[in-house]
Amino acid sequence: MPTLEGGLRIEVETATDWLVLEQIAPDALKGGAENLPNRLSALMDEGSEWDEIVVPELEDFFTGQLRMVRDTVHAAQQESTTDPPEGQFFIMRAEGAQWYGALNQARIALETHYHFGPGQELNEAESFPAPKRSAFIRSQFYCALQSVLLEHVLD
Amino acid sequence: MTITPKITAGTITEKEEKTSTDLAGTWNVLVFDDPVNLMAYVAKVFQKVFGYPRERAEELMMTVHIAGKALVWTGAREPAELYVQQLHSYQLQASLEKAQ
């Protein structure tokens, strides 16, 4: 739900919603040593010193995005007192890019791990094995949230 | 970001001279297609990083999407590296190549 301040209000209605939101950071970290900064660095030539200078900066930057998302979701969960655990939290306009980046990291890592490919439809995912299918559904959810961020929050 | 050649006793080794020469001149910034980044996001990043008007940014985004890559900027090595660093921070697949 867009807010008047240019952000979003996220309403969480079920335990599954919380589970998916909790998975953003773990999904993004699926690559392990083959993380995003290293994979981007592989595109650069050896003369660029990318590994020494840029990769550590990107690692800090990307980790900060994930930490912010994880902390926001965790804090909202703690405030929920209902059963099932409903709740809400806000994505402020200033946090939009960090949220988008964290969701993007998660989608890139899932794509790298499972190779969904472009244009994959939900009904095609029915034939996937269970872990890949649930990862695909999470990826679709992250993509939908990114689209809302693009439309309503990002400059 | 660029390597500064070590100059000792008025000489430059062959390897260092080659490196310095290699880094001079004009460089292209390339962006590659990927199955994750949303098209509207890629165009928005081009506007932010390079200050391109929306039409130009969307044209480049479509080139990336259709051709698999696009040359998005050409110039000196140092600013080209800074642009690639920014593109990487937006999680786009970008690299440098020496212009012909």
Helices and strands in order:
The complex is a heterodimer of chains A (155) and B (100).
Chain A: E1 8-12, H1 15-22, H2 24-28, H3 36-41, H4 50-79, E2 87-91, H5 96-114, H6 130-152
Antiparallel strand pairs in A: 1-2
Chain B: H1 14-23, E1 27-32, H2 39-50, H3 54-67, E2 69-75, H4 77-89, E3 93-98
Antiparallel strand pairs in B: 1-2, 1-3
TL;DR of this structure?
With 155 residues, chain A is mainly alpha-helical.
Commentary on this structure:
The complex is a heterodimer of chains A (155) and B (100). By secondary structure, chain A is mainly alpha-helical. Chain A has one domain (8-152). In chain A, 59% of the residues lie in helices and 6% in strands. Chain A contains six helices and two strands; from the N terminus they run βααααβαα. Chain A has a two-stranded antiparallel sheet. The radius of gyration of chain A is 17 Å and the shape is globular. The mean pLDDT of chain A is 89. With 100 residues, chain B is of the alpha+beta class. Chain B has one domain: Ribosomal protein L7/L12, C-terminal domain/Adaptor protein ClpS (Ribosomal Protein L30, Chain: A, 2-Layer Sandwich), CATH 3.30.1390.10. Chain B has four helices and three strands. Chain B has helices at 14-23, 39-50, 54-67, 77-89, and strands at residues 27-32, 69-75, 93-98. In chain B, strands 2-1-3 form a three-stranded antiparallel sheet. In chain B, α2 (39-50) crosses α3. The radius of gyration of chain B is 16 Å and the shape is elongated. The two termini of chain B are 22 Å apart. Classes of the chains: A mainly alpha (155), B alpha+beta (100). At the A-B interface, α3, α4, α5 and α6 of A face α1, α2, α4 and β3 of B.
Termini gap of chain A: 17 Å
Radius of gyration of chain A: 17 Å
Q: How many helical elements of chain B? A: 4
Count of helix runs of chain A:
6
Q: What is the fourth-level CATH superfamily of chain B?
A: Ribosomal protein L7/L12, C-terminal domain/Adaptor protein ClpS
Strand content of chain A: 5-15%
Write the CATH architecture name of chain B: 2-Layer Sandwich
Annotated CATH topology of chain B? Ribosomal Protein L30, Chain: A
How many domains in all of chain B?
1
- Using the alpha-carbon principal axes, give the shape of chain B: elongated
Secondary-structure-based class of chain B equals alpha+beta
Largest sheet of chain A: 2 strands, antiparallel
Largest β-sheet summary of chain B: 3 strands, antiparallel
Percentage beta strand of chain B: 15-25%
What percent of residues of chain A adopt helix (DSSP H or I)?
55-70%
What is the arithmetic mean of pLDDT of chain B?
A: 85
Structure summary, number of beta strands of chain A: 2
